[in-house]
Amino acid sequence: xxxxxxxxxxxxxxxxxxxxxxxxxxxxxxxxxxxxxxxxxxxxxxxxxxxxxxxxxxxxxxxxxxxxxxxxxxxxxxxxxxxxxxxxxxxxxxxxxxxxxxxxxxxxxxxxxxxxxxxxxxxxxxxxxxxxxxxxxxxxxxxxxxxxxxxxxxxxxxxxxxxxxxxxxxxxxxxxxxx
Length: 179
Known about the structure:
Elements: E1 6-9, H1 11-14, E2 20-23, E3 29-38, E4 43-48, E5 70-75, E6 85-100, E7 103-110, E8 122-125, E9 130-137, E10 149-153, H2 154-167
Antiparallel strand pairs: 1-4, 2-3, 3-4, 5-6, 5-8, 6-7, 7-10, 8-9, 9-10
């Protein structure tokens, strides 16, 4: 998310890790420091110290997405052997409520393939802007379910990441008590 080595990913990617390293697209691997995490939104910020400026992703506005638009998931499904894999599909829904570990999350639904190893990677729109953070795919234990991938909206991620950077933890959503 910055040329100075700030990276947004999922909390479940770094949770419990003794150390974190990041493999850059040209093969160099660098150690990263955990800056902050939020279990509720499953977001984390890590920082590495690059030897030169990195190319930062441009973030888009997930609130501007509409069902039917193209989306692309980037990640390493199955591990580093398949690093930088891109899969494409469509946005199916932009405000899909899904219960995950006893909490309701409002997510972007896409049929771009999201598999193990895509977690924490970007969901990008047709302009190359990050509109979501790949989160999970839906699967059923006794039947096959394909094409149900989910991403954390970039607008939500931006708010949580800013809170992690400024306060070290997410701040409560503001409420207006009018009746």
